[in-house]
Design a protein that fits this description.
By secondary structure, the chain is mainly β. 6% of the residues lie in helices and 37% in strands. The chain has helices spanning 5-11, 94-97; strands spanning 16-19, 31-34, 38-42, 55-59, 65-67, 73-83, 86-92, 101-102, 115-124, 128-130, 135-143. The strands form 3 sheets. Strands 1, 3, 4, 6, 8 and 9 form a 6-stranded antiparallel beta sheet that branches. A 3-stranded antiparallel beta sheet has the order 2-11-7. Strands 5-10 form a two-stranded antiparallel ribbon.
Length: 171
């Protein structure tokens, strides 16, 4: 079951945390999250799963940044989120998708108990100018049933910014 927007709002500060929270970003069954100004891009043309691939930091200027096709941009949300008893999921907004922007490659599923900023795997179909602060994606929450263990990954839990892949730690 997906929580309604009103139920998300009722649970803010109890078992769902969105900081900062702005009631204007609430939808009938989701909450819009904004794009932070920081982006990371990988320096290498070929990425190696067993290595900590080098990244370069880009700051989106006030007048925008043009994303290029064939390039992966790692961004993050301005909002920090945590869901104690619900499974958070992230999807792009339809207005963003209609510009040919993907906000995640395959990482839209969060874990119950995860705490931090969402790292976005941004890609585009054609060149498109993006801006920091735009409501780029939406988070929604599934109710959990059954016994569960809260997320506590050493890789991504309690993050403070954009995070490149840390899969190399699994080797």
């Amino acid at each position: 079951m997906i929580l309604s927007g009103k139920e998300i709002e009722n649970r803010i500060g109890k078992d769902i945390f969105i900081e900062p929270f702005n009631q204007k970003q609430l939808n009938p069954n989701s909450y819009n999250l904004k794009l932070h100004k920081d982006l990371l891009v990988y320096k290498a043309d070929v990425l190696d799963m067993k290595l900590a691939n080098e990244v370069e930091k880009i700051e989106i200027p006030e007048d925008g940044f043009v994303m290029q096709p064939g390039k992966l941009y790692l961004g993050r949300t301005e909002e920090l989120t945590k869901a104690e008893n619900h499974v958070p999921m992230l999807e792009g907004r339809s207005s963003i998708g209609r510009l040919g922007i993907f906000i995640h490659v395959t990482a839209g599923l969060g874990n119950v108990g995860a705490n931090g900023y969402w790292t976005l795997e941004l890609a585009c179909i054609q060149p498109v100018k993006i801006y920091a602060g735009v409501e780029i994606c939406q988070i929604f929450f599934h109710e959990m049933t059954g016994e569960f263990v809260k997320y506590n990954s050493l890789k991504y839990h309690n993050n403070n910014g954009v995070q490149p892949s840390l899969i190399y730690k699994e080797f």
